[in-house]
Amino acid sequence: MENKFLVNIRKIEEIEEYKKVGVATFLFPLSSFCVGYEREFSLKEIENIKEENKYLLINRVLDCAAVDQLYVILKDLKNIKGIVFEDIAVYNIAKKLNLNVELIYFPNHFNTNVRTVNFFLSRVDSVFIANELTKEEVKDITEKANKEVVVQVFGHNQAMYSRRKLLTNFSREFVLPLHNPNTLVERVSKISFKAIENEYGTVLYSGKIFNGLELLTLSNVKYFYINTTFIPLEEIINTIRKTKTELNTDNGFLGKETIYKLKEEAK
């Protein structure tokens, strides 16, 4: 299999370790424009890294002031292959500035069907497929997509993003020490979530590591994404090398449908 892994970077030194196992495409959270990642990088830092396949990650929901700020920052963009984004304002900025970069739409939870995927593929270079789908649904979408898509195959899945500083608010309300990141456990189900916040909001990830390596056989895929957040580098390297893992993982919704609404009982 051609190495199509895309990994988010936490330390610049990690790049050389990933290259040893064939990874050549890297995602860099852009400072002040990302939520939910352990490390962010300034645009200057990213541009100065001597790698061809570098993507910016911009996943904040932007307000008007942030849009204006981002417009100025991206105006002289260079040495960047593409932008992975969530807010449509990023798309509009890129088009207005006529940026010569790939655009990959990554809304986390919304690219769940072929019609939606192909609608956006008529406007951007690629899209991330939502991670709340079964293996059959992912396969169906990739086969019918008009362009190559991006599929997450490993890492903690994002469960929620809030623009509120939830960890800070909780610690203030109950006069508790602030731990950021932190692990939260729902009392009844005992399901855990990993939470991380910055000044722009909070992201909750699934407590278990998602293992979707069985999706590596899919065709029409541009990149197989590995979210390295909270996972030691050596574990990621071992997983890539073996294309399997010894970690405690689950396969998310690949084997079961997501339930969005409970059925009402007939009266």
If you had to describe this structure to a student in words, what would you say it looks like?
The protein has 267 residues and is α/β, with parallel strands linked by helices. It has a single domain, classed as TIM Barrel. 26% of the residues lie in helices and 24% in strands. The protein contains 8 helices and 14 strands. Strands 6-5-4-3-2-1-13-7-12-14 form a 10-stranded mixed β-sheet. It has a 4-stranded antiparallel β-sheet with strand order 8-11-10-9, covered by helices on one side. α3 (64-74) links the parallel β3 (53-58) and β4 (82-85). The mean pLDDT is 93.
Give a quick summary of the entry.
The protein has 267 residues and is of the alpha/beta class. 26% of the residues lie in helices and 24% in strands.
Q: Give me the number of helical elements.
A: 8
Biggest sheet, spatial arrangement of strands:
6-5-4-3-2-1-13-7-12-14
Rough outline? globular
Annotated CATH topology: TIM Barrel
Helix/strand order, N-terminal first: EHEHEHEHEHEHEEHEEEEEHE
Give the C-alpha Rg: 19 Å
Helix-strand category: alpha/beta
Cα-to-Cα separation, first versus last residue = 55 Å
User: Quick one: CATH superfamily?
Assistant: Phosphoenolpyruvate-binding domains
Give the helix level as a range of percent: 25-40%
Q: Flag low-confidence runs.
A: none
How much of the sequence is in beta strands? 15-25%
Main beta sheet strand tally, sense and closure: 10 strands, mixed
What CATH architecture do you see? Alpha-Beta Barrel
Question: What's the β-strand tally?
Answer: 14
Text of the CATH class: Alpha Beta
Mean pLDDT: 93
**Please, how many domains?**
1
